Amino acid sequence: MAKCRAKWSCVAAAALLVAAPHAAPAAQPLDSGKPAAVIVDSHIRQEETLSSTEAGKVITAIDRTRENIGTVRKTTKLDTVDIVFLTDAARSEGGPPPAIENKVKQHKDDVAELRQEIEANALLFNAIDSRRLQAEDVLAVEFDNPGRIVIYAAAKPPK
Asked: Residue 100 class from Cβ within 10 Å (0-12 exposed, 13-18 middle, 19+ buried)?
């Protein structure tokens, strides 16, 4: 009987190997030929600006981090992902200015949880990864209308 089970296990494993190549097109391969500006039907846009220009928006978004965590967790489709690089707030530039840094410290547990949720969300992780942005550089997110997220990051875009 044990021999028979082993034989059937081998047959089942072989069947899975044969079927696996046919299942691959259902997934979205990273080398699919689609431009990096589109991930899972979401347009990825980026902007470079100074933290002083966006400080008010970033601070408001940080204050809303607790409520945005749940939205990040539930997000499966977005029309647009906007990544705002606060270039003067990058670690190489000394980090965020005091007003933003203090707000991040005030909400440190929520910001840490937000970063974990972004890493756990395939859509958002692939969006930031496509711009070589690390979750630890994300300061806040804002859902300013359905289908669109703005991700504020203390980083410089890749060259």
From this structure: buried
